Protein: 26S proteasome non-ATPase regulatory subunit 2
Organism: Agrilus planipennis
Amino acid sequence: MSKKVNNPQVEESEEDKELQEELKMLVDRITGTDQKLIKPALNMLRTLIKTSTTSMTSVPKPLKYLGPYYNIIKANFKNIEDADTKKLYADIISVLAMSPTGGDDAKQQHDCLRYRLLGHMKNVGSWGHEYVRQLETEIVEQWSICSDSGPKLMPLVQDIVSFDCNNHAEIQACDVLMEIDRLEILPKYIDNGTYQRICLYLMSCAKYVDDVEATKILKIVADQYKRFEEYPRALVVALQLRDKEMVDGLFADCKDPIILKQMAFIAARQLHPVNYRNSVVDQEEIGNILSNNYLNSHFVALARELDILEPKTPEDVYKTWLEPQPVRPSILGENLDSARQNLASSFVNGFVNAGFGSDKLLTTDTGNKWIYRNKDHAMLSTTAALGLIHLWDVDGGLTPIDKYLYSADENIKAGALLAIGMVNCRVSNECDPALALLADHVNDESQSLRIGAIYGLGMAYAGSAREDVLNILVPVVESAIGTEILAISSLAAGLVAVGTCNAAVTNAVLSKLVDIRESETLKSPLMRLTVLGMALCYMGRKDCIETPNAALEVFTEPFKSTSQLLLQMCAYAGTGDVLVIQELLRVVSERIALPDDKDGLTKSPSGSSGAIPTVGVTDITQQQQQLYNHPLQQPPRKKAKIREWDMSIPQAVAALAVAAVAVGEETGTEMCQRVLGHVGRYGDHGVHKAVPLAIALTSVSNPQLTVNDVLTKYSHDSDDEVAANAIFSLGIVGAGTNNARLSAGLRQLAVYHSRNPTPLFMVRFAQGLTHMGKGTLTISPLHHDRQLIDPCAMAGLLITLTALLDSRALINGKNHFLLYVLAVSMQPRWLLTLDEELQSTSVPVRVGQAVDVVGKAGTPKTISGIHTHTTPVLLAAGERAEIATDLYEQMSPTLDGVCILRKKKLE
């Protein structure tokens, strides 16, 4: 029986035999000498080919049976005399050329395309989708071989694109036009039924092409959205392009007041300044939305709806009663370093109660007592926590902070100045209280007050690019004497001018660096933050860093490489550029060579910054040895001659930059997590410290099981710095999620590190981040369905993680207040629905995991694992929402953040 099945002669039916005989007869006629019989035979052959039906997995029978005659038919083409007959003959050869039996020569010589150009150039789609796809393939190949053939091919290309767009094959049309670089002809074939599918596909393609092509694609998408009056979608694309003129133009052209308000909410979330000049909606109303003045009131309303207004104490977060016995960190850890644990509790208290306006430590009558339970520089951070508690509440939050401005203690006063800056973070107020209160202390004699005022200004006006604020901060950079003031003022100026390529900030920082390039000051970890401040000005601006990059060439290694990598990290943050990631991975794998040892000092084994004298104990006299051994008469230790360079820092920055570039592109992020795992296993000590931070940056406020497990392993590392960074990274990953599994893991880490103050401090901080805003906030820079990256939020994360590359000198030293820059990244992770009067309205919504529907046929479901809720709701990372009622239509392109709904008119 198997022989019968395998024998094609047995399988052939009578119909097939008749078809073969008919086709042979037609071939004989078209290859014969009688010219009168050729054209009718060709018409008959065309009809048979076009009307043949087959499955998608087999070749049409006419093409299959005509295959053996292909070369005979092709050879006879030159004998045809009549022009119309010759065109029809060419059509038949072109179709037969795509058959597998046509041979490899037909495909290599592009017979399908060649004979189509000799035949009829219109209505090629009538031969079927497979034939059109073969033509598309050969057009692209021919175009790459000879671009001069463009004018001859364009009529055929236009006919194919028209066919594709009218027959649900828009994706193929886009692919062909992108391959031959003629995407500009696509818009005239786009109609009301296809523009959404085409625009969605083009936006996804823009991630994988070079900058010039991506800009071209996104501009076409924005124009199509504008053409079909999808203004909010066009605005999202314009924000991706960072095209201020396009954004202002969209606001000017839109005539629908409800859509204008929705656009204002989108721009406000991105902190994008808008030059509003439209009379449809009152200037003041749009101005209030753009200024984020609604943020605090809506957030408190959300808290009231969720019944979480009751303040939480740090002990409510630690939950020490759930920790394993008999070891209790409240007994051991707190007693080991109670000042550090009080400082940790101050941070935790601020982050957990962020935006709620009340707590149980600072806003009560005993607030002063808690502040004075801290010492020296810790009092600054403790007082500054008030800024988090009153976050976004400009009207009501300044009064409780004001009384601390009159304190006799400089650290408390500096903390109050920093708190004022945080209260005004992401919110604009026409009275400008932050500028009025902080500007006077920018040049104060007290360094603490200067730091509080400068850092506060940077956070209060982050992303605003205001010239009056920069005119205050840039002179501070230029006249800074100490490294701390220089670093803080540079960071503040960078925050204000983030992503603007501001020349004044760049020139000020570069001039200052050039002035001190021969000194030992460059070896301070604070100098990396100085360069980072300049780099923030180029956030997401890619190739714009060429000039500052060239200026940094005058510095010696490793400062030059470190600075250039910081620039590259910011410039390509969130772009997903594969070539940049490959270059950064090369830097991670190749360590910079050590300079010649000229001063009798050798590198410490760990590659850290401490210098070890080469002179040993053998050179010490017996009397000196006795003095060393005597407990009371030890001579004072000699200070190291110089501070040694840490040669692994460029690699550490490169590892962090890999994650920063990959953020926002899912496939790249997943691959980077795998690569970073290998890097952490085999890399040097500096890279080992940076890898947990880099992994956390790829999964901010998104506690995935795989990421949690990797970071938990690092958190048990024998090196305290690696363990501390991994623990902090767990806080970044779980920030604002209230993740139960992560919280249980942190409680176990609190027990494990109960005798070690530094990791325990990080455990407490990570617990505070995990419960940030009682689970209502996020610090992820991605929003609007991961289409946009908030440059200010990314800046806040990069400052924090860069500071942690040397946490022993900065975060665990006197500069722990740097961590408050996370306030710039904080946003509610809500879906808040408003009616046309901007009043909160509750509607049922379906919430589930987002599904990628780009290029899929029909109308596939965009979410999976659906749960129905009533707004307002909290959205986790990777979740998407849809309206579950037909009574409303949404104005926002995605249900994310603040969305305005309009009631549908009853028919």
About this structure: The mean pLDDT is 84. The radius of gyration is 34 Å. The longest strand covers residues 863-870.
